[in-house]
Design goal:
This protein is an alpha+beta fold. It is built from four helices and 19 strands. A hairpin with a 2-residue loop joins strand 9 and strand 10.
């Protein structure tokens, strides 16, 4: 069976998008990882599958590069918002989000930030705004769930952190029972952050939309910046707006790279 797909990206964070709303497409972790393989598959950071939803306009399933299914992806949400056009309500494992297409991208209401230790989740109770833990020189991070779990370290120079080495150690630490996305952020202005992210199930990434949301929200909570916040990632900037008691609004670009099709028989379940 030939399956149509679109290749898209948000600031270099790239996706295979399969529209399975009318013709179902079976996806397993094995098939997702095979399609994501950059040497023997199509190649992507995340595989996105659009399906019918009884709760919203569309259901978005998200599979990481390693085949694991996850709750949320901010860059993919913008890509889907651009692809579908107009205003959309999108069901995800992390909850229902709302998107509005903009020229060359989308604004996405990512929902509320959750700060309770058991909502992140952490393995045991602690203050999530100033966590009394550390990994070598990375100390006293903050944590939040923005549809998926994030821990963010505020450092003098985000580029100087060996995130390729420390990221996987923190991601898989027993403190995080569902693993965690790891960000290192430097405040570069009153409403400006520089961010690098080790993404759970992916690795170092050029852009992470939920990571940008997490870093901006936590920086505002720590009174390091005031919103709206420009977050500069290796792939480019995103704008994040948030205030206490409000949902998170993320605005930024998305791009359709090309369209194609693959034979499902080449990627067994």
């Amino acid at each position: 069976m030939l399956v149509p797909f679109r290749k898209m990206h948000g600031l270099g964070n790239d996706f295979i998008v399969i529209d399975a709303r009318e013709a179902p497409v079976a996806i397993s972790p094995i098939r997702a990882a095979a399609l994501a393989d950059r040497c023997t598959g199509i190649g992507c950071d995340q595989l996105i599958v659009l399906e019918p939803s009884a709760l919203a306009d569309v259901r978005m399933r998200i599979f990481n590069h390693d085949g694991s299914e996850v709750e949320a992806c901010g860059n993919a949400s913008r890509a889907v918002g651009l692809l579908l056009g107009g205003e959309q309500r999108i069901e995800t494992l992390g909850g229902i989000i709302a998107s509005a297409a903009t020229p060359g991208g989308a604004s996405v209401d990512m929902g509320p930030a959750r700060f309770d230790w058991d909502a992140v989740p952490l393995a045991y109770a602690m203050d999530t705004l100033a966590m009394p833990v550390g990994w070598e020189d990375l100390e006293t991070p903050a944590a939040v769930n923005v549809g998926n779990p994030h821990v963010v370290f505020f450092v003098d120079d985000a580029d100087a952190v060996d995130l390729a080495r420390l990221g996987p150690l923190i991601e898989t630490d027993p403190l995080f029972p569902e693993k965690v996305n790891v960000g290192v952020a430097s405040v570069t202005g009153p409403s400006h952050i520089k961010l690098r992210v080790w993404e759970r199930g992916v690795g170092l990434t050029r852009a992470c939309g939920t990571g940008a949301c997490a870093a901006a929200v936590l920086a505002i909570r720590r009174r390091l910046v005031r919103g709206p916040v420009r977050v500069d990632l290796p792939g480019g900037p995103l704008e994040i707006a948030w205030a206490e008691g409000c949902t998170i609004l993320m605005t930024g670009p998305a791009t359709l790279s090309f369209s194609g099709e693959f034979d499902a028989d080449d990627y067994p379940l």
